[in-house]
Design goal:
The protein is mostly helical. It is built from eight helices and no strands.
C-alpha cells in the first residue's frame, strides 16, 4: 500500500475509532471484547482498503464488517462460557443514572444476538431498515420483526424490573 493510502486509512480509522468502540460495546457489553472486535474490524478494513476507500458508503461497510465480526465471535465455542460466580466486592454506583444505564445494558445483553444487533443498529446507530438489513445480510422484514420483538422484550423486562424493585 502506498504511503498516501496508509495516511488516508489512518485518518479514517482515527476519526471513527470512538464510535466503532461504543457500538461494539453496546453489542457485547465488554470493553475488552469490544476492543478486540474493533481491532479485527480495522484489520479487515486495512486488508481491503484500496477497494473500500472508493465506496460511496464506507461507514456502512465498516459497520457491516463490525456486526458480522461480532456475530462470528458469538458463535465461537469459548464465547459461550459463563462465569461461575460473582466477585465478592461490588463497588457502589457513584454517579446518578448508572443503575439505570447498567439495567438497560443488562436488558440489552439478554436479547438474542440478531435482535440485539437489529435494535442497536436501528436505535443507537439510527440506521434505516434497509441499511440494517444490508449490514446483517437479511431481509427488511426480518429486521423489522427482530427490532419489534427486541423492543417488546426490552419494554416488558423494563416494566417487570421496575415492578419488582
Amino acid at each position: 500500500m502506498k504511503r498516501s493510502d496508509e495516511a488516508e486509512y489512518r485518518d479514517y480509522v482515527t476519526a471513527r475509532m470512538d464510535v466503532l468502540r461504543r457500538t461494539a460495546y453496546l453489542l457485547c457489553r465488554d470493553w475488552h471484547l469490544a476492543d478486540d472486535l474493533v481491532s479485527i474490524t480495522i484489520t479487515k478494513l486495512y486488508r481491503h482498503w484500496l477497494r473500500a476507500k472508493g465506496m460511496d458508503h464506507l461507514d456502512a461497510y465498516v459497520r457491516r464488517v463490525l456486526f458480522r465480526t461480532w456475530l462470528d465471535e458469538k458463535e465461537r465455542p469459548w464465547r459461550r462460557e459463563e462465569p461461575a460466580g460473582e466477585m465478592p466486592d461490588v463497588a457502589s454506583a457513584a454517579a446518578a443514572g448508572i443503575e439505570d444505564r447498567d439495567g438497560l445494558l443488562d436488558l440489552l445483553a439478554a436479547l438474542p444476538p440478531r435482535q440485539r444487533a437489529s435494535v442497536v443498529l436501528r436505535m443507537y446507530c439510527d440506521l434505516s431498515v434497509e441499511s440494517t438489513a444490508e449490514i446483517l445480510g437479511c431481509s427488511t422484514g426480518t429486521v423489522k420483526s427482530h427490532t419489534a420483538r427486541g423492543l417488546a422484550v426490552l419494554r416488558a423486562r423494563a416494566v417487570a424490573a421496575h415492578v419488582t424493585d
